[in-house]
Amino acid sequence: MSLRRFVQRKKKDADLAEEIESHLAHEQEANIARGLSAEQARRQARLKFGNPESVRDRVWRDRSFPWIEDGWRDLRFALRSLANVPGFTAIAVLVIAVGIGANTAVFSVINTVLLKPLTYPEPQSLVQLMNTAPQGTFPGANVPKFNIWNQQSSIFQYVAGYDQGGAGLNLTGGNDPEQVQGIHVTVDYFRLFGAPILAGRTFSSAEDSPHGGNVVVLSYALWKRRFGGNPKIVGTNIHLDGQPYLVVGVIGRDFVTEPTGDLWLPFQFDLTSQDMAHYFVVAARLRPGITPQKANAQLKLAADQFRRTYPGGLGPQGGFGVTSLQDVMVGDTRTSLLVLLGAVTFVLLIACANVANLLLIRATARKRELATRSALGAGRGHIIRQLLTESLVISLTGGFLGLILGMVGVRLLLAVSSGSIPRVGEDGSAVTLDLNVLFFTFGVSVLTGILFGVLPAISASRNNLAAALNESNNRSGVGFRSGKIRSLLVISEMALALVLVVGAALLIRTFINLQAVDPGFDTHTIVTMAMSISADRFQNTAGVAQVIRDGTQRVNTVPGVTTTAAACCLPLQGGFGLPFDIVGRPSGDNPSTGGGGYFPVSWAYFEAFKVPILHGRNFTEHDDGGAPGVVIINEAMAKQYWPNGDPLSDRLVIGANMGPVFVEPPRQIIGVVGNMRDGGLSRDPAPTMYIPVAQMPDRVTALNSRIAPLWWIVRTRVEPHTVIRSVSTALREASGGLPVAHIRTMDEIVIVTTSRERFNMLLLTIFGSSALLMAAIGIYGLMAYSVQQRTQELGIRMALGAQASNIRNMVIRQGMVLAIIGVVVGIGGALWLTRFLASFLFGVKALDPTAFLATPVLLTAVAFLAVWIPAWRATRVSPMTALRFE
Amino acid sequence: MVLPAGIRVRHATVVRKTMALKETSAAGDIFQGTLDMLILRTLVMGRAHGHTIAQVIEHTSEKALEIEQGSLYPALHRLEDRGLLASEWGTSENNRKAKFYQITAKGHRHLTRQTNRWRHMTRAIGLILGQSAD
Q: What residues of A are in contact with residue B8 (Cβ under 8 Å)?
């Protein structure tokens, strides 16, 4: 049979109808010729011909594909049959929609973060250069490292250094100065990433060398926003921190960086620099045919060479390596997303079990219908196909709704996660509905439909014909086999729900623990803001000290402000680290050298944060460039390096072996302060050194000004948001017109630093509670149904003298056996599965006894409630009504 | 003798339809082949429309094979779909519009093959039933 005939069959059918008419006319005429009356002739002709309809039907079918016809018929039948039970259909569709919606939401994030390749050409050959050490790998580079990596031309096609937008720049000129993110890059950066050039060109090698002049490349967004897309911008000057910069090019719209950059500037490295501090990162493009393994082998040699050239520049166990750029960008989000995917899969499985149960119940109610059809000749395969079509109608409708739910849900999700997930763009704008997501949702819908449909369909088709037809009604007991399947489904629902709830409990405990962590300072009524100090006058310490003095004085006069301080960095956000030597301490005793956090701060820093001075004294305004060098250490450092001694009698050499930039005379330890959580709430306080900004070596200041803005910390006695406007005005006046950006209260920063944990906790709690709810509905549904089915039996029991309490206990016992089996199985599963959560936990073990005790109790209680209602209803059965039920 | 007519009701339930189709097609194979052969044989003498074909089959068999005329048409259309027949609309002896069928070269070959098979088979059946091979 050909498709052409199939398609043409309407026309052919009309043809045949005409042909039949012609035949009948001929026969009629022949009959008339034999002497019959017209009426008789016509009748005889028809009799002889048989049923024209049936002839047409036969020819029609000869020309069709049975499976299309059958599929279409099954579909129409399914729609009709589902429309007959709108309540059932609505619940089933809704349950599936929620399950698929959750999966779609999580998958669309995974799709964007993990699956979509980076937007650069041939992204698989892009790698980031890493430092390897026994405790892990970390990015970060200095000029000597950059040089040696750049020399590995046998493995790298391009090597480029760039920073993450660090300090920010002030776009001046015009009335409205603005802080922008300027990414410093080396000359091969644009070639490495294959950046599309919209206008002009990128930097030349000459421009990327010291004294290469002030040149800048603009991003598409900044060019459009700030310069109105001026086509003649290339060749003109814009002003950054009051200095003219020549615009040499504009980059195309599709070039995405993480984090987003507004403009690019050449690094203009002095390639002879010996600075060992890490202040940028390096990426490379592997030559064709070079695998990361080959590159790593080559870099091992490079590391040895580096160690010989710069003794002390690399630890004895340290080395170099490459990591795929995509992996670097995704970071540990991968595990987190995969755990979430696992969780939503569980939710979907529970949803499936629930709907399967509904279908089983419905199949029992349809027993006679199915039996009738099979008596009329429907094969078992046909009945299964028919029932599966109904399941697919439910799952695809649910899938479609789920797609909508999921896309709405993912927006809400990303709104909550605020910036804790890489690659999702501004407020998750990069997470979009694409073919991958559509295919995923469609595939999951079909799979779901088969998954929850196949068991009920098979079990329903296994009907005993005679028994079903002879039943006077459909109220006899639940068939043994489908009863068993239903129990199994309920058990799995309970087990899956238990695993999810245990996971949620662990994450909730983690979050509570985090909330309970004392950050070491008072986070309330503090507002912070960043000022870019990229201008020339901030390239030496005196300039920065001056702006801090002026700013502090000015802001302190703002009504509502109590204390003003400035620093390189904010607590909880991480900062710099430097090695130190304790002067005069003989080696072999307590450790004489170590590493610790390095925080240049203004004198009022501890006062603003209300950090207690435990020993010695605080900084004063007079600890400036003219005074002897001082340093304050935190309690963690004092405990680790002076377990019994007195740190206040010792001096520190900070930045030893870090190159000439950091060379400075030893500093006297003048005080010990309480620990602040500088690396985030979940990190134990590390040894940390605080030094007065006014006492930094000039060259360190220059380096700092380049990679980090100056943070202002303003403690208020009023609600901190109310002073923002006057504080920024005061700072602008005090600094000669510098704008401030990234204005946030410290409380907001605390929220941001825990946003990943909040995100995980919220999601798993949502998933866990929906799982619990569905499992409860599942067990309730099963018991309620079984009570209803057994009305007659219960009636007889009661008529024979069973007490209400006997009946109730019997139902409760039956339900709770299932629930408890499910809980036990679930505990087993959770014991194995929670290990995948280990890296997200804080202050709680993956096998936390509280979670593992409380959750089963909670689930059992919920199950009891769900079972109790039908049990109570069972005792209300009146024997007379029950017996008259027939 | 009733040739395959089909015991179908157009609006029977979904299930019954398929089943009925299966049964007739299984049982009807021999007869269908026979009807095909008769149609082709009739058309060897020249082109004809459906009514003529029915009458020829009826008369030449001395009314021994009285077919339900309608069942001719599925066979005609099937043969045409298989390329054994060709058809065109024309005007009949009664001056009516009618669809005329004509045997194709492929149809001729098919007929020869089938006739030979039929002869072999009837001979064999005759032998078994103990008739003299006359």
A: 54, 57-58
Report yes or no: A534 and A183 within 8 Å, Cβ to Cβ. no
Chain A positions touching B19 (Cβ under 8 A) are 376-379
Length of chain B in terms of residues written: 134
Q: How much is the CA Rg of chain B, to the nearest whole Å?
A: 17
ipTM computed for the complex: 0.74
CA distance A727 to A744: 13
Contact A775, A856 (CB under 8 A): no
Phi, psi of A811 (to 5 degrees): -65, -45
| Phi-psi category of residue A244: left, alpha or beta, with phi > 0 → left and psi -120 to 50 → alpha | beta
Q: In chain B, what residues touch A5 (CB-CB under 8 Å)?
A: 81
Taking the Cβ of residue B10 and every Cβ of chain A, the question of whether any pair is shorter than 8 Å is answered with yes
A172: left (phi over 0), alpha (psi -120 to 50) or beta: beta
Domain end, chosen from A207, A234, A266, is at A266
**Structural domain span for residue A10:** 3-64
Which residue does chain A place closest to B89, by CA atoms? Answer: A19
CA distances from A515 to A518, A574, B62, B131 (A): 8, 18, 103, 105
DSSP A133-180: ETTEEE--B-HHHHHHHHT-TTTEEEEEEE--STT-EEEESSS--EEE
Residues A705 and A838 in one domain: no
A218 within 8 A of A263, measured Cβ to Cβ: yes
Test B15 with A77 for CB contact under 8 angstroms. Answer: no
In a domain, B77, yes or no: yes
Burial degree of A630 (CB within 10 A; 0-12, 13-18, 19+) = buried
Instruction: Tell whether B59 is covered by a domain.
Output: yes
DSSP track, A775-815: HHHHHHHHHHHHHHHTHHHHHHHHHTT--HHHHHHHHHHHH
- Structural domain span for residue B26: 14-128
- pLDDT tens per residue across span A625-659: 889 999 999 999 999 989 888 899 899 988 877 77
Average pLDDT over residues A389-404: 93
- Spatial CA neighbour of A22 closest among B53, B103, B34: B53
Chain A: nearest CA to B119, how far in angstroms?
29
Per-residue pLDDT tens digits for B31-88 = 556 788 888 888 988 888 888 888 888 887 766 666 678 888 888 888 888 889 998 8
Q: Which of A368, A338, A391 is nearest to A109 (CA)?
A: A338
A490 and A542 share a domain?
no
Question: Taking CB atoms and an 8 Å cutoff, what residues of chain A touch B14?
Answer: 70, 73-74, 77, 378, 386
Mean pLDDT of A108-133: 88
- Tell if the CB–CB gap between B18 and A1 is shorter than 8 Å: no
Question: Distance (Å, rounded) from C-alpha A539 to C-alpha A537?
Answer: 6
- A259 prior amide bond cis, ω within 30: yes
Find, among A785, A152, A816, the residue nearest to A474 by Cα. A785
Q: Is residue B6 part of a domain?
A: no
CATH number for position B39: 1.10.10.10
The reply to whether B97 touches chain A by the CB within 8 Å rule is yes
Q: Decide if pLDDT at A290 tops 80.
A: yes
Domain assignment of residue A156, yes or no:
no
pLDDT digits (tens, 9 = 90+) for A58-83: 888 777 776 777 788 888 888 898 88
Asked if A426 and A369 count as a contact pair (C-beta separation under 8 A), the reply is no
Check CB contact under 8 Å for A50 and B69: yes
Q: What's the length of chain A? A: 886
Looking at the structure of chain B, the number of domains it has is: 1
Per CB-CB distance under 8 Å, the chain B contacts of A386 are 14
Count of CB atoms situated within 10 Å of the CB of A760: 25
What's the Cα-to-Cα distance from B106 to each of A2, A43, A856, B39, B111, rounded to whole Å?
A: 18, 38, 78, 14, 9
Contact between residue A740 and residue A712 where contact means Cβ atoms under 8 Å apart = yes
Shortest Cα–Cα distance, A51 to chain B (Å): 7
